[in-house]
């Protein structure tokens, strides 16, 4: 449990560890990057949820994150169904998961900066 907490607090560590490990193993930067993104998204979900809870003094962060991921799955699944007549579940989940990586990375940076600014303002 302690390792999970550390990796969730600092989600860029698992990114670099997985990227390095996959690159050494497969010798392919694209595969290493995609795998690192997929693994890091898991830690970012918990990290951004906790930062959201701290920023807004709430307990809703994790549920909001899950709700947004489920909504994105629904929208992308509906678009796939309209365009192709069928839904490719693996492709849909992969698209949402990688989109979540980008959004969660931005949220992590934003909430961290906001928390630091708020902390320093309280110290003055």
Number of strands: 0
Average pLDDT value?
A: 93
Uncertain runs: none
Percent of residues in helices comes to over 70%
Termini distance?
35 Å
**Structural category:** mainly alpha
Rg over CA atoms: 17 Å
% residues in beta strands:
under 5%
Detailed description of the structure:
This protein has 124 residues and is mostly helical. Helices cover 89% and strands 0% of the residues. The chain has five helices and no strands. It has helices spanning 2-9, 12-26, 29-56, 61-84, 89-123. Helix 1 (2-9) crosses helix 3 (29-56), helix 3 (29-56) packs across helix 5 (89-123) and helix 4 (61-84) runs antiparallel to helix 5 (89-123). The mean pLDDT is 93.
Q: Key features?
A:
single chain, 124 residues, mainly alpha, 5 helices, 0% strand, flat
List the topology elements:
Layout (H helix, E strand, L loop, with lengths): L1 H8 L2 H15 L2 H28 L4 H24 L4 H35 L1
Helix pairs in contact: 1-3, 2-3, 3-4, 3-5, 4-5
